[in-house]
Amino acid sequence: MAVTDVIGGSGGRGSGGPWRNWAGNVTARPARTVAPASTEELAAAIRAAATDGLPVKAAGTGHSFTPAAATDGLLIRPERLTGIRGIDRAAGTVTVAAGTPLKHLNQTLSAHGLSLTNMGDIMEQTVSGATSTGTHGTGRDSASIAAQITALELVTADGSVLRCSAEENPEVFAGARLGLGALGVVSELTLAVEPEFLLTAREEPMPFDEVTDRFDELVAENEHFEFYWFPHTGNCNTKRNNRSQGPAAPPGRVSGWIEDELLSNGVFQVACAVGRAVPAAIPGIAKISSRALSARAYTDIPYKVFTSPRRVRFVEMEYALPRTAAVEALGALKALVERSDFKISFPVEVRTAPADDIALSTASGRDTVYVAVHMYRGTPHQEYFGAAERIMTAHEGRPHWGKLHTRDAEYLAGVYPRFGEFTALRDRLDPERRFANGYLRQVLGE
Least packed by Cβ within 10 Å: which of 277, 374, 386, 396? Predict the structure, then answer.
C-alpha cells in the first residue's frame, strides 16, 4: 500500500497519498488520511470530516476487489487501532480493536488456548474489514466470521459511539455485523471463541463428476468441506476438515513447504505467468497443475488448518447460491468453459455455509454454496466473469460484497429479503451519506 502522511491524533490532518488495494485493480486518492489509535480519536476525526464536508471511509488491508473502501474524502487507516482489549473466558468471548489483523487475533487466541469456531482461508485482513464484507470459510454448521460477533462498537456520522449487541441497540446490531461501512465505522468487536481444538485435514484428488454426484453426501458428512475444480480438466482437489482428538500431526516441514509454498505459490506463479504470456498453453498447464497436488492428511490447531498463504495475486468474483443449486450451477460453469474460448489458469473454489440471521449476509436466511472464479492479475477477466455471473444470477445468486460483480441495488433488493430493513437503518444512521462512495451508491442505491 502506498499511503503517505498517515497520522494519528484527534485532529491530525495530512495530504492524502494514493491508496491501492491488494490486487492492484482499485486506486483512490483521499483528501486526508488519519490513523486513529482509539475510539475517541476516531470519533473526533469523523466529526472533523463532517465539519469540512468530507465523505469518510475506513480501509483495512485492501483485500477487497471492489472499491468498498475507496474515497476522495477522509480515509481512516487501521494501523494504530489494533490489539486485544479483553478475553472473557466465562462468557467465551474476545474483544478486539477493529483494525487488528486476523493473523494477530488468531495467534493471540492460540497463545491463550482459544480459537474461533470457523474462519476464512487467509488471515491478512483486519477483523472489521473481514466481517464488514462478509468474509467466510466453509462449514456445515458454523458460519462466517460476522456470524460469530456478539457485540460491537460503532462510531456514527455525528461522532456518536453506539454499543450494539442482541440486547443493546439490537436493530443496529442486526445490520452492523455486516455493514459494508455504510452505517458508520466499527471501532471494536466482540467475538465468540471456544477452547482451542484440533482439526484433521484430509486433502484428496477426486474427479469432477464424483464430487458433484456426492456433493450433498460430502457436505453432510464433514464439518468443513470444500473443493477446487481445475477448468479445462475433469479434476478436482477436495479438502475435508473435521475435529480430532489428536494427537497433533502437522505437515512435515519439507513436505508442507513443497505443497503450500513451492506448488501452491511458487510453481503456480510461474504457470500463471506463462499462461498470461501464452494463453494457448493454459489447458495443458491446467492438466498438469490439477495432478500436482497429492493426497495428504494432517492434524493441527484450527487457524493452521483453515488458512494458507496466498502469494499469487489475482482478481476474483464469488457468488452465494442456494445450496440446492450447487450441482446445476457448477455443471453450467463447466459447460461454459468447455464450449468457449476462455483460457482459465485459476481453479474454481466451492465452499458452503449454513443459513444465518444477518440482514446483508450472503447466507442470510438460506443454506448456501459459494462458487468463486478467479483470474491471474493482469489477465483479461471481464468476459469470463460476465458469463459466469449470468449463470449465478439465474439462481438468485448474491455476490460477495468484497469481490467483483456488476449487481446493483435493484437486483440486490430482490435477492435479500431484509434489504429494505438495512437501507432504512442506513437512512436513520447516515441520512447525509457521510459514509457513501460510488460502490455503496451502486449496491445500496442513493
Answer: 277
